[in-house]
Design brief:
The structure is a single chain. The chain is an alpha/beta fold. The protein is built from two helices and 19 strands. The strands form four sheets. The protein has a seven-stranded mixed beta sheet with strand order 2-5-8-13-16-18-19. It has a five-stranded parallel beta sheet with strand order 1-4-7-12-15, covered by helices on one side. The longest helix is centred in the N-terminal third of the chain and has 14 residues. The protein is globular.
Amino acid sequence: MSKTQLNTFNNDWYQPGSALKRVLWYVTSLIFFESGFPLNSFKVLLLKLFGAAIGNGVVIKPHVKIKYPWKLQVGDFTWIGEKVWIDNLAEVKIGSHCCLSQGAFLLTGNHNYKKSSFDLIIGSITLEDGAWVGAKSTVCPGVIMHSHSLLTVGSIATKSLEAYGIYSGNPATKVKERTIIA
């Protein structure tokens, strides 16, 4: 039976950006995002300077971690809560009026457990308009949270979520429909 051979791991194919760009972002992120830095408008400006597409009225709370802003799109009036981690090795598209609650984790990378070399695999994530990722929840690579879907607290989305569906558990399953009243 074969065994994992991490010494054969090679992700040379993956080029997320120049080394200088990544180092500059790493330092910027530590100072202005992962810290308690409070000025939201300045954080939005920095994300744009590093290539993110950010809409109007976006709120970014303190202690947020974003791997590569040049792989991030955020629509209008979206909230990104405290300690959210957007680990975007691949593209992450977040629509308008979305909510990422405290400690939410968007995970675009994983490893191929079937390969002895433990190859890196990536998949983009899309949160359509009105999607809500509950506190301490995880959205896995390749997932689409369709319009106004909701992932409840501490749940893990391993597959795409239907529009207006409320999902819970690990792996998350649909528990009911989301009804929004005016």
